[in-house]
Structures are given as C-alpha cells and as structure tokens.
Amino acid sequence: MGADAKCPDTVEEFINAQVVSRGLDERTAIAYRMDLEKFYRWPETSRGPERADWEDKIEDRMEAYLDYLSKERGLRCSTISRKQKVFGYYLSYLVSRGVRTGHRPLKPLEHSREASVDTLLTKREVEAFFQAIDREYEKLDSDFRRRICLRDQVMMKLLFYHGIDISELLQLELSDYNPKTATLMIHRKRQEDYSVYLFSRELQQQMEQWLSEHMYFEHGGAYHNRMFLSKLGKPLSMKMVVNIFDKYRGLAGIEKVCKPKDLKNSLGRYAQEVVRELG
User: Fold this and answer.
1) What pTM value is reported for the model?
2) 3-state DSSP call for residue 51?
3) Mean pLDDT taken over the chain
4) Which of 183, 141, 140, 168 is nearest to 241 (CA)?
5) Angle of CA points 177, 48, 85, to nearest 5°
6) Among 41, 84, 215, 221, who pairs with 233 as Cys (CB 3.0-4.6 Å)?
7) pLDDT of residue 21
C-alpha cells in the first residue's frame, strides 16, 4: 500500500451513509475520512504492523494505532477519544453491511500526556476565524490585496483541513497540485511523500483561482515555482505565516494565545463538537 494507495471502498461508503446522506457539516466528513485514511496508511509511514491480513483482528490494529498516536505522537486525550469514537462508528457500519460478522468495543487507552493549556480552537472559533478572512476578502477594493487575501485563505484552509505542517506548506511548488484530480503532493523530510485530496469544493475553487493569480507574485524571480510567495516574489517565512494567522485571529475576536499549529490540529476538536451538538 503506497503513498497514493486508497482506503477500502467501505470507508467512502461509510462516510456517505453516516455523514453526507445525513446532511452533516462537510468538515465532519473530512475529519472522518482523514482519521480512517491515516489509519490505513499507517503501516507504510511508521513502524506499524505489516499490511498482510489487515482486516483480521482490525480492533487490535486500531488499538495499536491509537496507542501509537498517544505515546509516540503525544496527541491530546480528546483527540484520541474522538478518533476512537469514529473507529467504533466504522466498525458498527461494517457489521451492519455484512462485511464483518461482529466486532468488540475498542478498549480505553491510557494517554501519555494532556496539555496543561488548551490552545486548540473551538468550533465557534474556527468558524469565526474563516468568516473573518471571508469578510476581509469581500471588503477589499484593491485587486492585489484581494490576491494576497486569497493566498492567505488557501494556506489557512490547507492547515486546518489537511493538517499540513507549516514547513511542508511553505515548500510546496506549483507542480505539486494536480487540478484535474484536486490532489496535492506533500513532501516530508523524514517520511515518504504522500498526496492529499482537497475534499472541500470551495478550497478546490480557491486553489485554482490562486494558481491563476500566481503570476502577479512571480516577478520573474528564482522562486516563481514556489506555491506561496510574498508580494515581493520571495518565499514566505514561518514568521509571516504566524503574522497572517495572528491578523485573522484578532479580526475574529479570538483572545486565547494560539498559533498556526493549533489551527492545524483543531479539525479533530471541530468534528468532536459537531458530533456532540448532534447528540
């Protein structure tokens, strides 16, 4: 199962049955899909178990994966619990479709740590953040400033929807995006490259619009192939991304001290709060 391998068809069927057909938020579908895709991709990107007989004892493999996320990745208890709940929904769906004859509940896991300060964005804060960018874009009367805002929209949504590291985001090149398949190739330093599908239709449209506007930032410079450029045609820095995030965090009225990486890690919490609201 390589970097471009797909999940079993049952994953997409599960999402259509449990999320799309029920009219739930698109971000919930994205969160469920990412949870299951990363689980199925895990053996190829870490020290996970071998691929052979994957569906046998799937509960054991899910528990091993959650344990890995907790002890080696240090994910928050709330994030682990949300993923465990999604896996439980998926196992129940497999049984209901006759794919499996039954399943046992996933056992509770001990988590290695819990952050002392809550820096992840809530559902309300996430929505306020992106609404602030949308309002900024609509009110700008300069085409060039709107292009800059469009760039910022795309970057922030890639962070939130797809959990891309900022360093990986800043290294993206134009050729890494395939508009025909809406897939983006992510290059990692210590792991195998992998591609992500931009599930949000709005993000797909904004990405294509940004690529059509990219020429205004190139200035014929050495970095013209870099996906995200400053207004001077140079690569953005980590500090610039932080400043962009802080700008819209302020416009959204988010007072908590948080960073772009907290937006990157907030999709799970967002989905968890959606599920809680639905009862």
Assistant:
1) 0.62
2) coil
3) 85
4) 168
5) 80
6) 221
7) 66
